[in-house]
Structure formats: structure tokens, C-alpha cells
Amino acid sequence: MRNISPLQKERLNYQPKLAGVLKNGIKNISATLGEKTSAVKDADAIQQLFANIYGKELVTFSSTEASGEFDVKNVGVILSGGQAPGGHNVIAGLYDALKQANPKNELFGFLGGPSGIVDGNYVKFTDDFINEYRNTGGFDIIGSGRTKLETEEQFREVWNQCQNLNINAIVIIGGDDSNTNACMLAQWLDEKNTGIQVIGCPKTIDGDLKNDQIEISFGFDTATKTYAELVGNIQRDANSAKKYWHFIKLMGRSATHVALEVALQTQPNITLISEEVEERKMSLSSIVDYITDIVAKRGNNGKNFGIALIPEGLIEFIPEMKVMISELNDILALAEDDKDYTNIKSKEAKYALITTRMTDNSANVFNSLPEIIKEQLMMDRDPHGNVQVSKIETEKLLIEMVSERLAKLKEEGKYTGKFSAQSHFFGYEGRCAMPSNFDADYCYSLGYNAFALIQAGFTGYLSCIKNLTKPATEWVAMGVPLTMMMNMEKRHGKMKPVIQKALVEINGPVFKELENNREDWALNDRYIFPGAIQYFGPSEVCDITTQTLILEQRKAVKC
Amino acid sequence: MRNISPLQKERLNYQPKLAGVLKNGIKNISATLGEKTSAVKDADAIQQLFANIYGKELVTFSSTEASGEFDVKNVGVILSGGQAPGGHNVIAGLYDALKQANPKNELFGFLGGPSGIVDGNYVKFTDDFINEYRNTGGFDIIGSGRTKLETEEQFREVWNQCQNLNINAIVIIGGDDSNTNACMLAQWLDEKNTGIQVIGCPKTIDGDLKNDQIEISFGFDTATKTYAELVGNIQRDANSAKKYWHFIKLMGRSATHVALEVALQTQPNITLISEEVEERKMSLSSIVDYITDIVAKRGNNGKNFGIALIPEGLIEFIPEMKVMISELNDILALAEDDKDYTNIKSKEAKYALITTRMTDNSANVFNSLPEIIKEQLMMDRDPHGNVQVSKIETEKLLIEMVSERLAKLKEEGKYTGKFSAQSHFFGYEGRCAMPSNFDADYCYSLGYNAFALIQAGFTGYLSCIKNLTKPATEWVAMGVPLTMMMNMEKRHGKMKPVIQKALVEINGPVFKELENNREDWALNDRYIFPGAIQYFGPSEVCDITTQTLILEQRKAVKC
Fold it and tell me: Model pTM?
């Protein structure tokens, strides 16, 4: 075996807990059909698009007398999209269930994401191989990728590969898009009477794949705990040195669950929530005012330090920025062939010309930006000529703008403190952490359950585990029709069936918890230091899940 | 009690292990004098400067019959310089020993670092107060600061404060500079027959306060484990996504122990060691070549990903960069009053003028730098007009230069890969982490031992714990005269007595371990994933210390 760390070694021996009845073993459970389902919205359109697999029943499992050997079922598994802690355990759970059902069953792993099945790159799992990856982070067991399975041609190739390898079912481990595509694939394979089943598993550290059926996607628990460890450590540093503000950007472009959860775990002075910014139509200027006000108040109280959490996607949620960037994209696309523009040498003159072509409001927004951000907006463009919003260093933008505003307040005699800031960005640090006990158990159960659904003959279902704030013995393993979570949304100008993305609800219990406390946290130091994820020791330390899940479940129970 | 995390709560109850005989209790040990000591170098000069405290004996402790109550001894404690995990435990150990010796003893904590004792800002420790901070990270218990105690005036003020508070001894917890100053203070207080004792404790995450007496400074263990956790997680991410190079800068300006230790714990593809760069007189260009070569070889093998560790202080160790920056400082200082320079508007023209005033070699170095770094060199200047080397983003500099060189190789048909890089800087994330069991035990022992030295009447000593790779029961608590570790060095043009800083020895066993393996690690993927620091569970997981210490001790035993 390779040279591995003591913790890796120890974790290989961890036996993840199985949800509820699953622990009886794959031969001792049987599926029970519940109510028929609909779609979350646009039911007619969804039903039309997914005629074969739409409207099926919810599935639960119950204990039963042991069955004999099952018929052979071979399965292919795919990891899709960004890494999330626990992916390896989904595969381990799937593998164990499959081998318990019939030792002749085979599990194939397609390499490098969905493209692996199209290109026929795969590996066959063995005990030795899977055993090296139990309870480990990362997706390196078979790799991942961002290819989308959505065309007729790809589906045919999938079918081909399944025939070649004698595969009866495919498990797709991915986020909202990947599960949407899993649903399309399930429909296609069923239409063609291939007999090949498709089961999805809900993955993403962003936490935006959740709904009435999915309590939380896997990886969110571990990733947010890792970020909270770092934010807590930095808070302790700030509170010890008392001389820096730390602006910490956290991964998550399309939803702010990560920053919100980390805030609840650490209680920093400032937390920006993109969804609030959008819903309350906050301007960049008002955001800068909000931060400046807290920095100034603290500084005037002798506290020249603090912590601000910034969601990665913030810029795209500020209405006026969104408009300005969209105008800028159009202007720059035209300017490429415009000699009036291309002949200009100095940056300043370019800015001047461009802003005359913008609406007044956008020109004001553009002019208000620090030089470094203007440059980023003009320079870093993607292959389609669009601004690469993800490359804009929002944390530095805010530091610069707050700094300017504080300088004015100082001139006016309204601010007596000092402002010195450090910026951080955490994302890659948490996506491949070793899964927490929660994610290790949850993922193993998801994978095991995926096979239970396959064994029972279902297709177009998502493997779903509920009641997650309780001990694993009380978890409920389910199958949920993928169509149940879908609606129609406009994508690139066309209406498409998609799984709804869950944004932070500013009327929900999780945001409310922040809102009710943030004034206190802003000026007083209520920092909490979560420390590193613990895998051993007291249950309160190593088995508790996220605040987000706890608050949402508490609310759900009340309703 | 404040709202604290489950791990914080649990750690408050951890009882740190005491070194060897110390666990018998403060009343059951007595000091034994060993050999007389000298200075590590320049013994005559050191003896002259520290006549009263020079050349004293090494001190160890042995078990003895229990003594009765000791006379009252009040102690003041100071945290000095940057945070290091375990500082709170030094104070806890000191407090516990002091109260065990005589419940009437008082411990005073001076606030905000050494300035606290000069300004008379302090807090008196109580059980309730100290209990909230046991085994926690940070220096927030009393704060820290960078004021240097070195002037006659300050020493008088210290004496005043000690008289006001009836303090018999001062414990200074700090790095090499702070302990040098502790030595000066001890000498001064002894000369004046004040009867006030001074004891130092070796702190710094940088690991550069070590010598024949100090096996390792406290905090290094926890900080490097925290960085190794993050580097390991990012490695797993890189190895899963297979599309990014991660250039990770690690804190540590004056020595590279941190990056070296993290490298041994994680086995990345590239690790730069500043001391090697200096000793082997490597140019910036040769460093870029070294990295480019590995990136290209991996890329040509289809591996468009990898990890490079960059020490924070690298720039200052590259001989030609040091010369260029020094020339630039001189040129820019003069240029301020030079209208030929100040009238120039464009950056390019400024660069052109400035490089004509440099030596050819420096001009070449300057011209080879990416635009963003040139700007940083010209813009960010400290109050003395010097380049702020710490603000230079070395990780981005290297990414940019490697990227340019790869583009050339691609043109020449020698490189077929893709290079896409992410940069990271880890420092603040580790300085205030909750101390590992090792640091918790080590620090508690250091503090306890500091009081044992005070009780036995010593001054000008460093609290020292040896045999640290063995279980705590075999650790040896000692007192080492601070003068023993000193020599004369030039500082700001004057010869000064200082404690020698320990740089990475490129002939030492720790660097050799890297050197012997780095070719293999560069091209093959030997990543190790240490995971988060564990406080509970198997001893192999939660009690093992650093590779640096283990390798150095193994070598020491062999000699």
C-alpha cells in the first residue's frame, strides 16, 4: 500500500453507519410504494417530457425475511462535477450492497466524469481497490468531469457501453444539473426499452441541491466545517493581534448556503448574503456603507480588527452590477471592430469612451470601482468575450472601497481608527477534506440505498436519506422520482426541465438566525472557534451536523 | 460562560501531560545544578555584556520529599510577538504550579504584549479566568504585541511596575528577539539588585528558535499540521480534478522550516527552500526553470496538475533579487527629489529611467519581472521608503513567469500540456489553531517548569523541555541560561548580542529527506493527506509530533 498518513490509515477501518432498515442488509429489505408524485411546478410540461418515468410513487424500505441469491445486476457509476467530501463512500456503499446481493455482481467506474461512459473509459472495482478509498476525501478514485450527458448521440453511446459491459443500471453522483441529465437519460433508456436503470445521488458542497425531499446534499457538512475551522482560527488571530480586518471569500457562486452556515458556526462581525442583496436590491455603494459603518464603529471603540465573510457569487447578485456587466459585455463585443476604441492606448481614455456608451447608472457604477477591478473587468474575458465574474476579487474590491470611504470619514472627523485588511479565499481547501462522520455515514447510506433501488427495479429515482438530524438508526432510506423535483426554467433563451436550485430564503429559519444576531455580532465579539473536524471522541464533538440542517428540520417539525 | 463550540467545551477539560518529574508536583521536585555553560559563540563579548547572569549551570529537576508551603512569589507574564498555538497553556501551567506552591501567590498578565508592563496594563489571573482558556488557541487571553523591551527607560518602568504589584519574577513568552531582550532585562534587574527574576519560554510557529538546547519552539507542531491539512486537501482536489496547478505560499519569512515540514507531511510535487536558494546562489530565472521543467514534464505525460510550496521569504533569499531591491531602494530614495523622475507620467518611462541607474545585472532582473510585480516594487513602500518585500505576491510572480516560459516551450513544440494555476497563502489559518495534544502538553510543561525555575531562584534562564519525541513521562524539564544560546551579530550596522536564528541546514537530515525524495515526488504522485488535527482517538493519530523533530532527534541520537 502507498505511504499514507496515520489518520488516513485509521479512517480506512471506520465502518460507516447505515441508515435505518438498510443495516439489516440488502437481502433483508423490501421496497414499499408510497404516494404517487407530481412535479414541483409545471407538472404538465414535465409529464410530457418524461412520460415513461413521471409521477411514480415514493419508495421506502422495510424489513423482510432474507431472500436467496439475487440475479446478477451489474452497475456503472459516474462522479460528475466538482468534488465533494464523501463521494468515495457513495461508491463504497454501492459496492458493498451490490456484492452482498450477489458476489457475481460487478461495479464499473467510469473515468473522468460523464465523458468516461461516452468514451468507454472505465475500471472494474475489486475489494482491494475500493478498500483503499473508504472514508477518504476527493474524487480521485475514478476522477470527475463536467461533460454534460444530454444529447441523443451521447445517450446512444451510453447504451452501447452498457451493452458491451452487460451493465443493468447506472448511478450518477452529481449536483442539480447532473441529476437533471440523469433524469433525461432515464427517460431515454426507458423509451428505448433498454431495461437499463438510472439512479441519481445528491452531491454538492454548495448546499443548493435541496428541497422537500433532499434534506441536504452530501459534502456540505464537511466542507463548511473545514471552512469554519479556518474562519474560527483567523478570528482567534484577529482577536489576539487586534490589528487586522480579515475579508474572507467563501466558495459558492450561485447560492450563499456555505457562507451562511460558516457564519452560524463562527459568528463573525459581518456576513454578506447574496440572496439578501438581490432581494433587497442593495447597491454596491450600500454594501460598502454597511461594512464601513461597522468598521468605523468598531474602530471608534478601539477595535481595529474584525472578520467579514463574503460569498464568492456576490457581484452577480448586486442588481446594478449585473446590469453594468451585461452592458459592458455588449459594448466590448462591438468595440473590438471599432477603430475609435482599438486605437486608444491609455486605459483612462478607454474607460472614458466605454462609459459614454453605458447608461448613466452603469457608468456611475463603473466609475465608482477601484482601478484594479476596472482592469479585471476589461482584461479577463472568457472565450465568448464575456467578463469572467468568478475572477473578480470581490474581497479586494470591498477592502479598497471601504478603505476609501473610511479615509473620507477620517477627514470629516467621524472615524479615529486604523484599517488594515487581509484577504483570503477558501474553496479548494474544503472540497476534498476527509468526510466527517456525518458525510461518511450519509454517503455510504446513499450508495447502499442506490443499489437497493436498483435491486428493486426502479429507474429515474434519486437515492434519498431523510431524518438526518437524528442518529443513523432513525434515518429513513427512500427513493424519490427525479421528476418530482423538476420544473421548467429558461436556460440560454429556451425553456428546459431542470431541478430547482435552492437559494437561501431570506424568510427561512437559517437566514433569520443570522439576521437576529448580526447586530450583536458586528460590534461585540461573539466569535466561536469550531476547531478541526474530529472523527473520534465524544459524540457531541464528532457526530453533530450543520446548523443549517438543524434549523431547517426544527422549522419543518414545527409546521 | 460564552457560547462556545463543542470542541472548545471538550478541550477545556483536557488535562495536559506534564514532563517527567514535574508531574510529581511543584513541592516534590528540587533543582540540580549541572555543568557550567558558555555562549554558543563570542563568549567573551557575551560574558562582558551579561556579567551577572553569564555562564551559569544547566538546571534539571529531580524528585524529592514534599516541602511545606513556600514563601509567596508573585509573577508577571507577557506574550510577545506573533501568535503561536499553545501560548494559553504556558500560562495555565505557570498558574497551576504557582498556585500549588502557595495559594497566596498571584499571577499578573500584562496586556497587549511587552508594552503592557511598561504602561502598567494588567489583569490578575483567577481560576475562573484561566479555566476558560485551557487548551485553546490564540493569545487573546491577555493579547500580544511587538514592542521591544530594550531601553534603560523601559527597564526602569518594568522595575517600577514590579514594585507596585509586588512581583518577584517575570515570564516572557516569545521568539528569538523577545528572549534576547528577556536576557538583557534579567541582566539589568540583577545588576540593580532588584531581586526580580526573568524566565523566557521559546515560542514561534516559524521553528527558527531552536538549537542544542531547544528541540523545537512551541506552536510549530500545530501550525504545520494545520497547513499540512490544507495542502493535503488541495492535493486531493488537484488529483481529482486534474486540471489545476496550485501554488501555495506558506508563512515564514526568515526561515523555511514550515514549508519543509509541510512538504514532508504531504509530499507535493515542488517545494522551494529559501536557504537552498541562497546557499546555491540560485537566480530567479533558474528557479522558474526548475518549476517549468517539472510542469512541462508532467504536462507532457498528461498530468496538467500539481502542487508547489513556496516559502513566504523566498524573494529575500534570491541573491540577485536582494541586490536589485537594495539598489531600487537607494534609487527611489534619491528620485523623490529628482524632477527628471517625478515629472514622468507613464510607468514604462519610469521603469526605463530607473533601470538606467541600476547595475546591468539588476536592470536585467527588474526587466524580467511581470508587470504586476514591477508595480508592487514601485508602489508599496514602507514608511522608510523601502520596498515592502512581504507584500510581493511571490506565488503569483512565479505563476506568471512559469506561464510565459511554458508558452515559449509550446511554440518550440516541447510542451503539449495546459497550465492553469490557482494561488493560495496560508499563515493566519494556523497561528491560532487549537493546540495539538503535543503543543498542549509541551506548553503546559514549559509554563509549569518556568515556575519551578522561579521557585528555585533562577534568573536569566529559558524554560526548556527535552526528549520530546518520547512520551511525556520521559520528557526532561530543564533550565538553560539564556546567555548559552547567544552570539554577537550585526544589526542595523552595530554588533549586538542575539540568540542565533536557526535556518534550515541544507546538510541536515530534514532537508536531506526532501532532497532524496523530491525527484520522485515531482513526477509521480506521492501525495499524502494528513487530514485535520485530531485530539482524541488512537495515539498514532493524535500524539505524534513533526517529521522535523523526529528526523533531527534520530540524527542526534546517531551522533
Answer: 0.96
